[in-house]
């Protein structure tokens, strides 16, 4: 069997969840598990978090997958519903809804149901992505008063644009905007994502919404999860599948993107962009091989990549390789690939074998 696998450590996940609870001790936790739990496996991750008071996903289908897996906690649809005809199934599955534009309120006004839905009104505090502008709020409050099928008062939420940068004063500005525009309302609030949980304590409010930090990575610029006491949940691993001796001046891989500067030895590793390893990882991106870090050399192929072991090497075919995880922080690999750790775990493809470790 091809040795390429993602080992998912559920004990590390629970450790990170507890870390969130400690850091935001006055708040309740909505575990963000959208995009297949950031590529870690939606149902497995949710089942391993029995203490999460709520889960958040981006699409109704992700929520139904959780229900089918037996998840009973409340589930929040972060973008609400996309089509009015989805509403009956959303009601049937007892999902919480973000409401971020007026057509959604109009659709709720038309909804005929005996049940009451739980709504989170999304306020745009400056990110200019989803949500109502603060000057629209008085009108929206009037509109919501006419909606019969929702529990009142509704909850409020907002989202940060740049909380990953502690130097950026925009985060405080957003908190101020969110608070000032809603101070007349006695309701539950949610604002903090992972970065807000780590570095913007005044935004913890009633509910926090951690995503990335649950999976053990840091969203903060130039830091890794361990800096905040987090443990990586995903270890992306493979093995050496071939070893090759190169003369000085020879190249490896497509496009002849790297040339040996000395007589040297390279190893071919059984993982490529067809598995989700980023093709744009540059020469020199660290790869962990059998206890040491060696540089990626040449272009990443679909099914394999090359690393330089150097002339004095002891590695052999079958030796363990870690692309990111406990031995090598995903944040560092992401930087070498011009991306962020979010895209690395989300990008691991279906042909990678997933192995779950730790108690369920
Ligand atoms: C609305 C909302 N809240 C929370 C999160 C979690 O963010 P993070 O993974 O940075 O914690 C996201 C993720 O993009 C989001 O869109």
Compose a concise summary of this entry.
The protein is 25% helix and 22% strand.
Polypeptide structure, described:
There is one protein chain. The protein has 360 residues and is α/β, with parallel strands linked by helices. The chain has two domains: 10-217, Alpha-Beta Barrel (TIM Barrel), CATH 3.20.20.10; 234-357, Lyase, Ornithine Decarboxylase, Chain A, domain 1 (Beta Barrel), CATH 2.40.37. It has eleven helices and 17 strands. The chain has helices at 10-23, 34-39, 42-47, 60-68, 87-92, 102-110, 137-145, 170-182, 194-199, 330-336, 341-346, and strands at 5-9, 28-32, 54-57, 75-77, 96-99, 119-124, 132-133, 155-157, 189-190, 207-208, 234-246, 264-269, 286-289, 292-297, 305-308, 320-324, 353-357. Strands 2, 3, 4, 5, 6, 7, 8, 9 and 10 form a nine-stranded parallel beta sheet that branches. The longest helix has 14 residues, at 10-23. The chain starts with a strand and ends with a strand. The model has no long low-confidence stretch (mean pLDDT 97). The protein binds pyridoxal-5'-phosphate. Residues 32, 78, 159, 193-195, 209-212, 219 line the site of pyridoxal-5'-phosphate.
């Amino acid at each position: 069997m091809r040795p390429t696998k993602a080992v998912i450590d559920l004990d590390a996940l629970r450790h990170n969840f507890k870390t969130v609870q400690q850091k935001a001790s006055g708040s309740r936790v909505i575990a963000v598990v959208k995009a297949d739990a950031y590529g870690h496996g939606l149902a497995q991750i949710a089942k391993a978090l029995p203490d999460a008071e709520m889960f958040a996903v981006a699409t109704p289908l992700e929520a139904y997958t959780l229900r089918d897996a037996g998840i009973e906690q409340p589930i929040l649809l972060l973008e609400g519903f996309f089509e009015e005809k989805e509403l009956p199934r959303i009601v049937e599955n007892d999902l919480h809804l973000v409401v971020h534009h007026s057509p959604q309120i109009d659709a709720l006004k038309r909804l005929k149901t005996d049940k009451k839905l739980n709504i989170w009104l999304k306020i745009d505090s400056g990110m200019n992505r989803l949500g109502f502008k603060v000057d629209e709020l008085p009108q929206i409050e009037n509109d919501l008063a006419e909606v019969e099928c929702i529990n009142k008062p509704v909850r409020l939420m907002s989202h940060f644009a740049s909380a990953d940068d502690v130097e950026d004063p925009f985060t405080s500005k957003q908190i101020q905007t969110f608070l000032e525009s809603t101070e007349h309302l006695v309701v539950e609030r949610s604002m903090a994502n992972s970065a807000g949980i780590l570095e913007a304590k005044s935004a913890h409010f009633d509910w926090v919404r951690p995503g990335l930090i649950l999976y053990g990575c840091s969203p903060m610029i130039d830091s890794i999860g361990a800096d905040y006491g987090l443990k990586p949940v995903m270890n992306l691993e493979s093995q050496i599948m071939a070893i090759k001796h190169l003369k000085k001046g020879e190249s490896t891989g497509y496009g002849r993107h790297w040339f040996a500067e000395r007589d040297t030895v390279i190893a071919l590793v059984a993982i490529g962009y067809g598995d989700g390893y980023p093709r744009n990882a540059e020469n020199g991106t660290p790869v962990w091989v059998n206890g040491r870090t060696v540089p990626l050399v040449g272009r990443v192929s679909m099914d394999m990549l090359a690393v330089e072991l150097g002339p004095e090497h002891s590695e052999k075919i079958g030796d363990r390789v870690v692309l990111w995880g406990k031995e090598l922080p995903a944040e560092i690999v992401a930087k070498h690939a011009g991306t962020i750790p979010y895209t690395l775990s989300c990008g691991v493809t279906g042909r990678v074998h997933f192995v779950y470790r730790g108690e369920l």
